[in-house]
Write a structure and sequence with these properties.
alpha+beta, seven-stranded antiparallel beta sheet, 25% strand, globular
Amino acid sequence: MRNTIVSSDFNFPGQKKVYKGKVREVYHLENDILVMIATDRLSAFDVVMPKGIPYKGQILNQIATKMMSATEDIVPNWLLATPDPNVAIGHACEPFKVEMVIRGYMSGHAAREYKSGKRMLCGVPMPNGMRENDKFPSPIITPATKAEMGDHDEDISREEILERGIVTEADYKVLEGYTKALFQRGSEIAEKQGLILVDTKYEFGKTTSGEIVLIDEIHTPDSSRYFYADGYAERQAKGVAQKQLSKEFVRQWLIANNFQGLEGQVVPQMSDDYITTVSERYIELYENITGDSFIKANISAIQERILNNVLSYLKSLNEVT
């Protein structure tokens, strides 16, 4: 009944290997080319939900590529082209093994740590007297790295990153500078849309020529938290929850249905009506974040569409080179 892409099994010309993440599938081709397909899979609490969400992959891919285009003047990125609504093609990079998380407000994980009594997060001090969703005096960078066992992210300090040799000091300074510049630009873009960019994460890699570039997604509802600016101050003054623009609504539905990704818990069944609601919410997110009307791609034969569009682009790329 539903036309979604929840997995792929393409064999592109010059294909060397495939990496399948929670949401994206990355095809490594010859000549250091990557084909990244944003599927319609939905991940929450580090668990992939059983059913796909119509248009979700298109939405994430198009927000990320729009935001990369809007920031390429301040930070170079891996992107070459988007030949299909669900596809981004770019340069292969060696990813840094840290995610650069930056927080302008004390929300989410930072707020939970603060409530537990902690005043340091990833080696960064958090001022006394703050309330959840208060703005930090200035944005703080709280990096994360993958746990040695499993896919869960772990907090890590700048000092530990350098001590363990995960990133060199020279490269880390570049990552910090790029992270601050991207967050500043992202905040300006959000402000024009009547939003507040609360926190987000950036991932970087190094090209074969040694250039540090932005990779993966940027400023999407899966990687970022937004508040509506209108009424933010009033809600803070009253101590009530902020209106969020993120996939938090999915997490809250799962929590209400007794699922937080814990051992022994069973993923609740999502009805077709609920999946339609989630799809509509993602479209709303797209339009609020970008300011553009969402144009639904033809999803009658997604796999064929993607294959034809990617092959056409690769052919044109080979003709140029």
